[in-house]
Amino acid sequence: MTTSKRRTSVAVIVFVAILGGSFLIDPREEPKGTEVRQEIAMIQRTLPDLICVGSSYLAAAVSPQELSRLTGLRVYLLWRSGASSACYYLFIKNVIGAASHKPRFVLIYFQDNFLTVPTDGIDGNNRATKILPFSGPEEPLLEKLAYREKRGLLLYGLERLWPAFRLREKLQSDVLRRVEAFFPRLLFGPESRTPRRVFRQVFAENALNQDLVGQRQLMEENLSGLLRDSLEFSKWIDRSFLPPIIQIAREKGIRLILVRMKRRSQAMGETESEPLLAYVNDLREYLAREQVTFIDFSHDPRIRIEHYGGGDHLSSESLFTPMLAEAIRPDL
Amino acid sequence: MLFTSIDFIYFLFAVLLLYWFLPSVRWQNMLLVLASYFFYGFVHPWFCLLLAGATLVNYGSARLMTAVPAHRRLLLWGCLAADLGVLAAFKYFNFFFDNFRALLSTMGIELPPFASSILLPLGLSFYTFLMIGYVVDVYWGRVEPCRSILDFALFAAFFPQTVCGPIERANHLLPQIQMRRRWNVSIVTSAAPLLLMGFLKKLVIADNVGIWVDKIFMMRHPPLPFLFLGAFGFAIQIYTDFSGYTDIARGTARLFGFELFENFHSPYLAVSPSDFWRRWHISLSTWLRDYLFLPLSYAVMRRIDSDRVLFLKTESFAYILGTMGTMFLAGLWHGAAWNFVAWGSYYGLLMVLYHLCGVKGNWKPRGFRAVSAWAIMSLLTLAGWTLFRSPSLHWLASVFHAPRWGTAGHQSAAFVMMLGLILFYCSPLFIRRALDRWLPDSSVARAAFYASVIVIIAVFHHGQTQDFIYLQF
Fold first, then answer.
1. Per mean pLDDT, which range of B69-78, B371-380, B401-410 is the poorest?
2. Chain B residues in contact with A213 (beta carbon < 8 A)
3. Which end of chain A is more exposed for a tag (fewer CB within 10 A), N or C?
4. Residue B114 binned pLDDT confidence (cut-offs 50, 70, 90)
5. What distance in Å separates the CA atoms of residue A104 and residue A44, rounded to the nearest whole number?
6. Among candidates B420, B446, B451 on the partner chain, residue whose Cβ is nearest the Cβ of A19
7. Nearest residue of chain A to residue B441 (CA atoms)
8. Which pLDDT tens digits describe chain A residue by residue (332 residues)?
9. Contact A15/B451 with Cβ under 8 angstroms?
């Protein structure tokens, strides 16, 4: 064998060895279902008639005690900050559906096309803190509607085969946390501040120019074209978690109430786009066919811009809770 | 279609597979034209009409120049007017209208607001310059007009370079288009490192560094050290974003047997502004030199009879006018906003100042002078990127109006962390540079490096990749 051929062979072996070695990296992911039992226990203890499902938007807008007083129902809020529609599906399937006590009503709090975007909020920190803790041992529908849809066949297949790629976010986060801490420790000593907290302080909402933040979001939405695409109701409904959510509720004898909330931009007077109006009409018709109650607060003039805190969060529960109680009363 | 999308991977494999089984260059070119139009019109099919229209106008004008030599000049100006008219209409209408309206408003004349909502077609600035270069070359007799419309259509639309360049020249790309390309293994072995480095630069470095840069430039009033860090981060982001695109474009072109221009040559090692522009976006800077700066400077010199103008030699005066005009237009080419114009003019001014100080284009300092020149040029480059990246000149003015020099305790920690993260993301580039310098012939070291690059891309790529920065230009 000539020197050149020998070198090439060694290079190929090194290349394959490093790439192959990466297949042996198998960091452990967070365990599944860690919060399911705890939430089920809460439901068994409080025996709610009405469970409100949502994110921090729900928690900022609705007081369970007040709603309970106004409706005469025992109310429980099942929410996580930043929960996505995939998370709502897991709440309903693995917590509400699995608890021996069944509520009479489940209220789902959402905005715009949130319920038919199955791929949002399923990766990174969301996966670690909201998806896995509410997952069962096998979640074929979650895999299909959220992960396979988002990745496409090629990347999804690669994720199955290559652990380093599948658990990239965990690996990335572990490495970056070390890098973030390394330089401050080197310069300011081991007592230096926690990196993530420092970032949050420096780039807090009031430190950023909100006009620029808004422009950036708009530009991203316009460039990606995703917004318009995700407003095609007929395209997304069968690829979303809404039909399985309705089906689980029907099987368990639970009545669903869907509540669409007004966004800050609407309170500021921004008109809804034509595709969004068409989407909401289609959603309304679909829910009517499925005999699901749909309450739309998005044009309610009582909710004004001064009622908003950060982003789309209401600043207090006192405004919306009575409005909600009044709106759901005919269905109770 | 974006190079970083999954659709592109499927597209590339499908086209490659077909391409190398086709029996002749004619069939190969036909497939590439179809593939290029599919690639270009993937999101907005109407973009293809514009590209096809520009192709026909430029092809026809060049052919007519030889068929009717008496009207060559008229044909050239007609073609340039059409090319630049389309560019102006799509890219600059809103900018000029808004400024015209503001100007009239200062005179007490109010025009109603109007904003064209037509999208800027991707790559319009790039392929317009490509075709202008071709028509001017034909006019000057540097190249023969292309006879085959198919070949010219491929020259104009070749998908690796349509959207963000490199801005090719007819005498470089057309002969490759007309030549038979045959498959061999070196096509893949030479393309793969470029593709891997391109994806690494874009997906791992540019996209991740961009997060911090965006945050800093979205602050209401960043302290100056943060602004400096933002400019430093942006210098890395824009370099890795654009040179990453170029690497992917060149790697993709190689897979089809083409060699495209190199667009970057270690731009941050420049020691003077002209040196920077010889290393940064080389295909644009040489285009501007050949088709704008030199004709403009010669035209000025031809019109001046005396040896001196004001206190300057005629050549220096022509250089100053040519440089300022060229760099002003270079800034405007990048985007229809005053900060781009300011950025271009800033470089024009720097080049003129260096020139007046006796630092000419071929200046090559050694030793301590080289280090000092590099350090000064690096700071000037960062200042330029600050102008370029700022959301507006007004924002920048407000930051400097009441500058905050220091950083509070938590801000110092954040500064160090962000700097650490930026350097961490860039570390593969430093390793690559060390390999090139210390182990240039080691195939084993290279194999280890590229295998690691694959793993790094898999683990550290940014989940939601951003569009390439130069797509907006």
1. B401-410
2. 218
3. N
4. low
5. 14
6. B451
7. A7
8. 677 788 888 989 999 999 888 888 776 777 888 899 999 999 999 999 999 999 999 999 999 999 999 999 999 999 998 899 999 999 999 999 999 999 999 999 998 888 998 988 888 788 888 999 999 888 999 999 999 988 888 889 888 888 888 888 888 888 888 888 887 777 777 666 666 777 777 777 677 776 677 666 666 655 444 455 778 899 999 999 999 999 999 999 999 999 999 988 888 887 888 888 999 999 999 999 999 999 999 999 998 888 888 778 888 888 899 999 999 988 87
9. yes
What pLDDT score does A215 carry? 67
Q: Which of B199, B421, B455 to mutate to test the interface with A (most CBs of A within 10 A)?
A: B455
Residues of A in contact with B467 (CB under 8 A): 223
Cβ <8 Å between A15 and B463: no
Hey, are the CB atoms on B455 and A7 less than 8 Å from each other? no
Residues of A within 8 A of B6 (CB-CB) are: 152, 154-155
Q: Spell out the alpha helix ranges (H) of A240-309.
A: 242-251, 264-267, 274-289
CATH superfamily of A36-154+208-331: SGNH hydrolase (3.40.50.1110)
The answer to whether the beta carbons of residues A134 and A95 sit under 8 Å apart is: yes
Looking at this protein, which amino acid is placed at residue B84? L
SS3 content of chain A, % helix, strand, coil (to 5): 60, 10, 30
End-to-end alpha carbon distance in chain A: 85
Burial class (CB in 10 A: 0-12, 13-18, 19+), B390: buried
Q: What's the pLDDT score for residue B43?
A: 78
pLDDT of residue A219: 62
Is B221 considered catalytic here?
Answer: no
Would you list the domain boundaries of chain B? 6-183
Pick A195's closest partner by Cβ from B43, B219, B417.
Answer: B417
Question: Which residues of B fall within a CB distance of 8 Å from A199?
Answer: 414, 417
Say yes or no for a CB contact (<8 Å) between A184 and B413: yes
Please determine, for residue B152, whether its predicted confidence score (pLDDT) is greater than 70.
yes
Cis before B166 (ω within 30)? yes
State residue B407's pLDDT score: 65
Beta bridge partner(s), residue A106: A51, A256
Residue of B281, B334, B355, B462 with catalytic role? B334
DSSP E strand boundaries for B328-454: none
Q: Within 10 A of A66 (CB to CB), how many other CB atoms are there?
A: 17
Q: Where are the domains of chain A?
A: 36-154+208-331
B interface mutation test: which of A12, A15, A160 has the most B CBs within 10 A? A15
Cross-strand pairs, A75 = A50
CB atoms < 10 A from the CB of B49, how many?
11
Candidate from A18, A124, A199 with C-beta closest to B414:
A199
Q: What are the tokens at B439?
A: 């182990």
In this complex, which of A123, A154, A162 lies closest to B463 when CB atoms are compared?
A123
Q: Which residue shows structure tokens 């939430």?
A: A39
Distance from CA of A149 to the nearest CA of B (A): 13
Residue whose token pair is 């909402």: A205
End-to-end CA distance of chain B: give it in Å, rounded. Answer: 16
Q: Chain A partners of B219 at a C-beta cutoff of 8 Å?
A: 203, 207-209
Least Cα distance to B466 among B266, B249, B205, B160 occurs for B205
When comparing pLDDT for B182 and A1, which is higher?
B182
Can you say whether the dihedral through the CA atoms of A194, A196, A199, A201 is positive or negative?
A: negative
The mean predicted confidence, pLDDT, of chain B is 89
CA B143 from centre of chain: 24
Rg of the Cα atoms in chain A? 24
